[in-house]
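thought: user wants a sequence for this fold. calling inverse folding tool.
action: design(structure=
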């Protein structure tokens, strides 16, 4: 009888261990792979690439970031742009913002403010605070848009509400300049 009890105890312990492993595998999601991939862990990057191939927008975005900044991989703007484009096609707002940034700054692409504007608008409409700030700047200074300070303030407000401190600062400066006029 004791042997049977031990057998069941071992079986139960094994099931607990396996369920713990399954939970760990679930937790080993894109977010948890990022730190390891940033540290150059080839296995973590491979897992991100597998998730990306299977359609995970966040994995595609993270891979774009790794290549854009050369974190854990050789910096490669062309590869970053491809990953960002794939994530952006799935509606990933931060990937859309990064594409706007690449075109605005000429990172691995010919500088093109019209394309930057398109990507910033897509990202801003999806709620990306950094893109909302960039649109505010474009409207405030008339960059590829007619100058429109009330619209700039609206975008700065949205960026600020989204926790983007530069949006709050820009809004305050815009209001201060308006009160002096």
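)
observation: tool returned 181 residues.
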């Amino acid at each position: 009888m004791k042997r049977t009890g031990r057998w069941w105890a071992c079986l139960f312990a094994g099931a607990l261990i396996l369920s713990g492993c399954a939970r760990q595998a679930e937790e080993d999601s894109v977010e948890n792979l990022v730190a390891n991939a940033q540290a150059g862990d080839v296995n973590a990057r491979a897992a991100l690439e597998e998730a990306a191939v299977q359609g995970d927008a966040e994995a595609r975005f993270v891979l774009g970031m790794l290549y854009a900044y050369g974190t854990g991989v050789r910096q490669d703007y062309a590869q970053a742009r491809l990953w960002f484009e794939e994530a952006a096609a799935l509606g990933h707002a931060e990937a859309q913002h990064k594409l706007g940034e690449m075109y605005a700054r000429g990172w691995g692409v010919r500088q093109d403010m019209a394309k930057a504007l398109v990507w910033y608008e897509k990202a801003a409409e999806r709620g990306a605070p950094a893109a909302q700030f960039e649109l505010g700047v474009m409207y405030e200074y008339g960059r590829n848009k007619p100058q429109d300070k009330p619209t700039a303030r609206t975008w700065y407000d949205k960026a600020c509400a989204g926790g983007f401190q530069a949006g709050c600062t820009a809004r305050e400066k815009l209001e201060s300049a308006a009160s002096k006029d």
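thought: summarizing for user.
answer: Here is the designed sequence. Residues 1-89 form one domain.
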